[in-house]
UniProtKB/TrEMBL annotation, chains A, B:
Pfam families: PurS
Biological processes, Gene Ontology terms: 'de novo' IMP biosynthetic process
Subunit structure: Part of the FGAM synthase complex composed of 1 PurL, 1 PurQ and 2 PurS subunits.
Family per record: Belongs to the PurS family.
Pathway noted in the entry: Purine metabolism; IMP biosynthesis via de novo pathway; 5-amino-1-(5-phospho-D-ribosyl)imidazole from N(2)-formyl-N(1)-(5-phospho-D-ribosyl)glycinamide: step 1/2
Name the record gives this protein: Phosphoribosylformylglycinamidine synthase subunit PurS
Catalytic activity: N(2)-formyl-N(1)-(5-phospho-beta-D-ribosyl)glycinamide + L-glutamine + ATP + H2O = 2-formamido-N(1)-(5-O-phospho-beta-D-ribosyl)acetamidine + L-glutamate + ADP + phosphate + H(+)
Gene3D superfamilies: Phosphoribosylformylglycinamidine synthase subunit PurS
Gene: purS
EC numbers for this chain: 6.3.5.3
Function comment: Part of the phosphoribosylformylglycinamidine synthase complex involved in the purines biosynthetic pathway. Catalyzes the ATP-dependent conversion of formylglycinamide ribonucleotide (FGAR) and glutamine to yield formylglycinamidine ribonucleotide (FGAM) and glutamate. The FGAM synthase complex is composed of three subunits. PurQ produces an ammonia molecule by converting glutamine to glutamate. PurL transfers the ammonia molecule to FGAR to form FGAM in an ATP-dependent manner.
Organism, as annotated: Mucilaginibacter arboris
Source organism phylogeny: Bacteria, Pseudomonadati, Bacteroidota, Sphingobacteriia, Sphingobacteriales
Localisation per UniProt entry: Cytoplasm
Length: 83, 83
């Protein structure tokens, strides 16, 4: 079975996010000062071939831990659905 | 009212995604060859102060169009919920 995973990798709350800070600042110059607390991370979409949803879940966990997220600075969340 | 927006900005389907291609390749070396079609974009979370959800929606649309997404190469989706 094929599953589609949608993963968000975000900088941890305690970690400064300079890119997000810069964007927050730019919002003021664009007359969008109502927008604050911008944080920027990665969004990753991928396909997994697995026998069942639990196996697909495990594969995506491994991919996040080994490659996609730097667990010292980032945390990840994802959801899976059948493709 | 305060709203929290979660925005995904992804490279358009027709656009080559070299970062995603590189990650797809690396999956093989990590014994995760079941993972394919990796595409990598940005995930942005932010807060909007607005009178109602429609106004917040409009603000986030503007932010995406003016700053967060390059509409030539990227498309965006987002959802809003009250913070």
């Amino acid at each position: 079975m094929k599953f589609q995973a949608e993963i968000d990798v975000m900088p941890k709350k305690e970690i400064l996010d300079p890119q997000g800070k810069a964007v927050s600042g730019s919002m003021k110059n664009l007359d969008l000062s109502e927008i604050t607390h911008v944080r920027i991370g990665k969004h990753i979409s991928l396909e997994v071939e697995a026998d069942n949803e639990a196996a697909a879940h495990e594969k995506v966990e491994q991919a996040c831990k080994k490659l996609l997220a730097n667990l010292i600075m980032e945390s990840y969340t994802f959801n899976l659905h059948q493709a």
